[in-house]
Specification:
This protein has 375 residues and is α/β, with parallel strands linked by helices. It has twelve helices and 13 strands. Strands 4, 5, 6, 7, 8, 9, 10, 11 and 12 form a nine-stranded mixed sheet that branches.
Length: 375
């Protein structure tokens, strides 16, 4: 199963409106489509990531830097392939971008492993269960959006088959956002999981104040509560001050970054993102570290990849997606065979590999950069 070619394609799809969290606003949906061919005729096709402005740069890193290191290698030797690709992170550079590029290649390698074995990646990684809860990212800030609008949004998510919602907070005062959370819970009704995500928007005192306001409510977790510059210490302080589980890890780009959060006593849940941090091979290391200390695993976005990983392990909680088709025109809208959520659960497909079959006409329509390297 020698790697004979690697191609990378950056796509960018304009969104019909802006979607805003505490410290950011999204106007496009982006991804890297990676294809890998082997000497025995296997071909992987996957997509990763949601980076805003760096698609063309990622294509260049994959084709010009990683491909020369791994072409000719046996894709079954995934640790060797990963180690060779990781060499590009050694010089002084934007290492997060490098790890995103490695993630694209590594995800394609795991797709090949599944295709060769005739097994899904879920089965390859452990196959703990065949379905898991699914929640939507939502509750975005929007001009003129009322508490009633937020409640109705939760009702719509339930109709779309979601089992819960991760509501954006951190952009208003703790008191105002606490009222938004209460409105979301009112609209959600019983049995609907509500978590909150500040996207590193608050100071430690404000995060603690907010946590104490919502602590009596049935909140699944409080995600990235404090600002980035001292967040391990800050999250540990918030964690000690409230009973709500603290979730973080999506902003780390190595498993060792996750270990730093664990060592600081900062997290109850880790949502390490394989698509932004070295791929499935690196994610497995983070998941193993969490399993040893009874920390549960979530994942930041990317249900087409994350569902396989989280369903494979006993400490996976749920997969998250963008249920609103306006927010994510990719999943399931460019995936003709994507599984559909039902009654809050997602059945993970057992087609070989990740089971991804993209709408090629749509990929071509939204391509902004593409390149191929061959042996």
């Amino acid at each position: 199963m020698r790697i004979e070619s690697i191609s990378a394609t950056a796509i960018e799809i304009p969104l019909p409106r802006q979607f805003a969290g505490s410290v950011y606003a999204m106007t496009t949906r982006c991804a890297i489509v990676t294809r890998m061919r082997t000497s025995d005729g296997l071909e992987a096709e996957v997509y990763n990531g949601d980076n805003r402005e760096h698609g063309a740069a990622l294509v260049k890193i994959i084709v010009d830097e990683i491909a020369p290191l791994v072409l000719g290698e046996d894709a079954a030797a995934y640790e060797r392939v990963w180690s060779k690709a990781f060499a590009i992170t050694m010089p002084n550079r934007d290492r997060k971008l490098a790890m995103e590029a490695i993630a694209c290649v590594d995800t394609a390698v795991w797709d090949l492993l599944g295709r060769r074995a005739g097994l899904s990646v879920r089965q390859l990684l452990g196959g703990f269960r065949s379905e898991l809860p699914i929640i939507s990212i939502g509750g975005y800030y929007a001009e003129g959006k009322t508490l009633l609008d937020l409640a109705r949004e939760m009702e719509q998510l339930r109709l779309w088959g979601m089992g819960g919602c991760k509501v954006k907070v951190g952009g208003l005062s703790p008191e105002q956002d606490a009222e938004r959370v209460k409105a979301a819970l009112d609209g959600a009704g019983p049995g609907f999981m509500i978590s909150v995500d500040a996207n590193r928007g608050w100071s430690v005192p404000d995060a603690i104040r907010f946590a104490r306001l919502i602590e009596p409510l049935p909140i699944a977790w409080f995600e990235e509560p404090v600002r980035w510059d001292d967040e391990a210490r800050g999250m540990a302080e918030v964690r000690r001050a409230c009973r709500i589980p603290i979730n973080a890890g999506q902003s780390e780009y190595s498993a060792r970054g996750v270990r730093r959060l664990i060592d600081a006593g900062a997290v109850d849940i880790v949502n390490f993102d394989a698509s932004e941090a070295g791929g499935i091979t690196e994610w497995r290391r983070a998941a193993a570290a969490c399993a040893l200390v009874d920390i549960r695993m979530a994942h930041h976005e990317e249900p087409q990849i994350a569902a396989h990983m989280l369903a494979a392990i006993p400490h996976g909680i749920c997969v998250e997606c963008f249920a609103d088709p306006a927010r994510d025109p990719l999943w399931p809208h460019l995936l003709p065979d994507a599984p559909r959520p039902k009654a809050g659960l997602l059945a993970v497909p057992d087609r070989p590999g990740f089971g991804i079959t993209l709408d090629q006409a749509a990929v071509e329509k939204y391509t902004i950069a593409s390149a191929t390297a061959r042996l």
